[in-house]
Specification:
With 374 residues, the protein is an alpha/beta fold. Helices cover 40% and strands 17% of the residues.
Length: 374
C-alpha cells in the first residue's frame, strides 16, 4: 500500500488558526454572524427555535436544493446533492468517478485536497499549471500533455485558490476539449464564484457546458458562512445517486439547523445581501494589502487576484515559506499559508477580506518579521 498523503495545509490551519491572535490564513471573508443572517426575519428565528433536532432529508432539504439549483443554468433539485462542506463533495466525487490506476489531471496551484485524495485513491496523477510568469494564465500545452487515454478526471479550481485567477472563455473551452477528447469527467471547484473583486458578474459555471461535469459549491467563501459546513455537488442525476451512496458512508447528512440556515442564506431575499457583503470586504481590504506591498519596494510580487479574499504573494527573501510562516506564528502570533503547501516556493497566501484595523495590525506584524529575516 502506498504511503498516506496527509492534507498538509488543512492540518496546519486546524492546528493554528484558533491559537494565533491574527489569522490571515482563511480564504473567505470575515464570517457572518447568526444575528446578521436572521436580521429582519422574526419568522426565521421562530422557525429555528421550534425546529426538532432530527435528521433533515439526507441529500439536502428540498427547498435548499431548489435554491442551489436555481444558481446553475438548466439544473433542477434532482441535480443537487448537499454535503458537509465542499470538502465532502470533493471527496465523494473523486471516489465515485475514478478507480485505482485511472488517470487524473489536476490544476496547480490549487487547493490540494483533490490532489491528495487522488494520490490516496491510487490514481495516476499528472498536473498542469497556471503560469505565474504569465499572470497565472492556464498553460494549455501542459493541460493537453497531462490528459491521456486513461484519464478519467480533470480537476480545476475556478476562480482559483490561491491565485484568485479566473479562467478565460478560451481556457474554459480548452479544459472542456481536453476532457471530451478522452471522455473524462471535469471536477470544477467553484466555491469562489460570487466573490469577484472587479465585477459583480458571477463567474460562469462549467455545469451545463459539457455533459460530464460535477460542479462543487459551498457557503464558506462567497457567502461568509464557513461554520455552517454546507457544500454541494451539481451534476447528472444518475451520477449524484451514485455519489449519495458514498455520502451515506462519509457523513450521512449535514445537520438540520445547517440546512435551515442555508435555506435562509440562499433565499432570494438574503443571497444578494451576502454576496454584496463579501464583495465589500474584498474591495475594501485589497487596497490595504496593495499599499502595504507597495511600501516594501521590490520585496514582494503579486498578480492582482480577480476574485476571492486572498492574495498569492511572492517574496524576495532567502528563506523557505514554511519556515517563514513558523516564525510568524512563534514570534508574532500571525498565521498565513506558505506557498510550499501549494507546491509554489517563496510565496505566501495572505487573506485580506477582514476588518481594516485587524488586517492592518496583522500586516504590521508580518512587516516586522520580514525586516528581521531580511
Amino acid at each position: 500500500m502506498s504511503q498516506f498523503q496527509p492534507f498538509v495545509m488543512e492540518h496546519a490551519m486546524g492546528k493554528w488558526e484558533t491559537m494565533v491572535e491574527y489569522n490571515l490564513s482563511e480564504s473567505g471573508v470575515h464570517p457572518v454572524t447568526v444575528r446578521e443572517l436572521l436580521e429582519d426575519s422574526e419568522s426565521g428565528v421562530e422557525t429555528l427555535l421550534n425546529t426538532e433536532l432530527n435528521y433533515p432529508q439526507v441529500n439536502g432539504n428540498p427547498i435548499l436544493r431548489e435554491y442551489i439549483a436555481g444558481t446553475y443554468s438548466g439544473a433542477g433539485p434532482e441535480n443537487v446533492l448537499v454535503t458537509v462542506g465542499a470538502a465532502e463533495a470533493n471527496y465523494i466525487t473523486v471516489n465515485s468517478l475514478a478507480e485505482a490506476g485511472d488517470g487524473a489531471a489536476i490544476m496547480l496551484p490549487n487547493y490540494l485536497q483533490v490532489w491528495g485524495i487522488a494520490k490516496n485513491r491510487g490514481l495516476d496523477v499528472r498536473t498542469f499549471g497556471l503560469d505565474k510568469d504569465n499572470g497565472w494564465r492556464l498553460n494549455i500545452a501542459e493541460l493537453r500533455a497531462a490528459v491521456r487515454p486513461h484519464t478519467k478526471l480533470i480537476a480545476v479550481c475556478n476562480p482559483n485558490n490561491p491565485t484568485g485567477y479566473i479562467l478565460t472563455e478560451d481556457e474554459v473551452n480548452a479544459v472542456i476539449e481536453a476532457a471530451d477528447s478522452v471522455g473524462a469527467w471535469i471536477l470544477a471547484d467553484e466555491v469562489y464564484a460570487g466573490a469577484e473583486r472587479l465585477t459583480d458578474q458571477i463567474t460562469p459555471s462549467f455545469y451545463g457546458r459539457y455533459p460530464k461535469v460535477i460542479a462543487i459549491g459551498s457557503l464558506s467563501k462567497a457567502y461568509g458562512l464557513p461554520g455552517l459546513r454546507i457544500g454541494w455537488a451539481v451534476g447528472p442525476r444518475d451520477t449524484l445517486e451514485n455519489m449519495w451512496l458514498r455520502h451515506d458512508y462519509a457523513a450521512i447528512t449535514a445537520t438540520m439547523l445547517a440546512n435551515q440556515l442555508a435555506e435562509i442564506a440562499l433565499s432570494p431575499r438574503m443571497r444578494p445581501r451576502l454576496l454584496e457583503r463579501t464583495r465589500r470586504y474584498i474591495r475594501e481590504g485589497y487596497p490595504v494589502l496593495e499599499k502595504w506591498l507597495a511600501d516594501h519596494g521590490n520585496m514582494f510580487t503579486l498578480t492582482a487576484p480577480q476574485a476571492a479574499a486572498i492574495a498569492f504573494v511572492g517574496y524576495q527573501l532567502d528563506v523557505d515559506s514554511e519556515s517563514l510562516v513558523k516564525q510568524l506564528i512563534d514570534k508574532k502570533s500571525v498565521l498565513v499559508m506558505p506557498g510550499d503547501y501549494f507546491h509554489v516556493p517563496h510565496h505566501l497566501r495572505i487573506s485580506f477580506g477582514l476588518p481594516r484595523d485587524y488586517l492592518q495590525t496583522a500586516l504590521q506584524r508580518i512587516h516586522e518579521t520580514m525586516m528581521e529575516v531580511g
